[in-house]
Amino acid sequence: MTRSFYSHIREAWNSPKEGKLAELQWQRQQEWRDQGAIERIERPTRLDRARSLGYKAKQGIVVARVAVRKGGARKQRFKAGRRSKRQGVNKITRRKSIQRIAEERAGRKFRNLRVLNSYWVGEDGSKKWHEVILVDPEHPAIENDDDLNWICDSSQRGRAYRGRTSAGQKGRGQQGRGKGTEHTKPSLGADRRRGK
Asked: Average pLDDT, stretch 120-135?
């Protein structure tokens, strides 16, 4: 079996809290905390993962690191009319994953670009960081690329908001078949809206 060029990067990221990567991640997160919520970066932190999701080091492709706070819905307690048990405050989570929220925020920041995909790069006690790969559908380098020019089609507008990315499809229950996906095909609204 031949080992790919990026296999050593992939193996290191399988356990990011161990070895040299743990120390490097600790240093990185010190810097990331001081930066804004959405930061455009020169090159991907996880080159193997970015490549597998369609990234190419060429004009028309942008990578942005997005920080999203962790935790539940942070609902406020009701003023009146419920006993404690029925307050419904804790352990309430959003229907969207943090990764999907990161993709949408990147899409809003870079309005002329389209979200291709994203991947996790780190987290601490209060934040999760994802890197989002964005593509310029008007750029000639993208229009002439046989692997990426499908994203130039008008049907690909607002991909992140419609759950068309990998993380979005996962959140909509569209990946895989069988147990757990019975009520999500062909959409979350199908089967008496029992998807979520």
From this structure: 97
